[in-house]
Structure formats: C-alpha cells, structure tokens
Write a structure and sequence with these properties.
- The protein contains 3 helices and 6 strands.
- With 138 residues, the chain is of the alpha+beta class.
- It has 2 domains: 38 residues, N-terminal domain of TfIIb, CATH 2.20.25; 96 residues, K homology (KH) domain (GMP Synthetase, Chain A, domain 3, 2-Layer Sandwich).
- It has a 3-stranded antiparallel sheet with strand order 1-2-3, with no helix packed on it. A 3-stranded mixed sheet has the order 4-5-6, with helices on one face.
- α1 packs across α3.
Length: 138
C-alpha cells in the first residue's frame, strides 16, 4: 500500500509527502483564493502522466540500446465543464531527439500506453488519451 500525506500550511497551500520521504507543494490560483505558489493538484496529475510515460519510454529505448539524446513529454488536457471537471481528452506528445529508430520509438510508446504507465491506465478510464511523437535528429 502507498500512502501520501497532504498537510495544510495556510491559505489553500499544502505540503505533501510520500512514503519515500519525497515532498511536493501544491496550491491553487489566485482566482480561487490561493497564492499560485505551486502547481495545482490537477496540474500535478497531468505532470505525473507525462513523467510516467517518459520514464517508461526512456527505460524501454535504453533496453533496446537506442536511448534518446533528449526527451520532452508534453501532456495537454481538456476538462469537462461541470464539476468535478475531470479530464475528458488528453494528448501526450513525445519530442525525441537522437538516433532512435522510429519503429523502436513507436513500440516504446505503445508499451508505455498499453502496459506499463499506471497513471495513463487510471486516467484512460475516464478520458480519451492520444499518443503522438516528433522524432528529431541529434
């Protein structure tokens, strides 16, 4: 079992801590009475998706002996109009630089999307997720 804690530190700001001991701050925008001092919980969910996919793709490409020189994972999400305003559509874009065969990149993305990324699996239960890539030479 994983445990996360969020301790209120005033306003609508929280200090969060995971079992691993790592911490993160979360806040909300000024327009919702926050201080905009940290990412929102919704933003961190989208960042978690991007990082989860990124970890998978780098790991898989490294095992295929074609690690990227650089990788940026962009996740753009649309949300519903009514509360709880869940994600309805997400586009994940992998911007890969390096000598990575396109078929290997496609396979790595497919494995992340269909098998390994637990964040993607959870979000995919409520939103359509499209995966795309840009492959750039080193």
């Amino acid at each position: 079992m994983l445990t996360a804690r969020a301790n209120w530190s005033g306003g609508l700001h929280f200090m969060c801590k995971a079992d691993s001991g790592h911490t993160a701050e979360m806040d909300v925008p000024l327009t919702i009475d926050g201080n905009s001092s940290a990412p929102t919980p919704v933003e961190t969910t989208l960042m978690a998706l991007a990082a989860c996919c990124g970890v998978d793709v780098v790991s898989i490409l490294t095992k295929m002996k074609c690690p990227p020189a650089s990788l940026e994972v962009r996740a753009d999400a649309e949300r519903g109009e009514k509360h709880p305003r869940v994600f309805t559509h997400i586009r994940v874009l992998f911007v890969v630089t390096g000598d990575v065969p396109e078929k290997n990149l496609q396979r790595a993305i497919q494995l992340s999307a269909k098998t390994y990324c637990s964040i993607g699996a959870m979000l995919g239960a409520i939103a359509n997720i499209d995966y795309d890539y840009e492959l750039r030479p080193a």
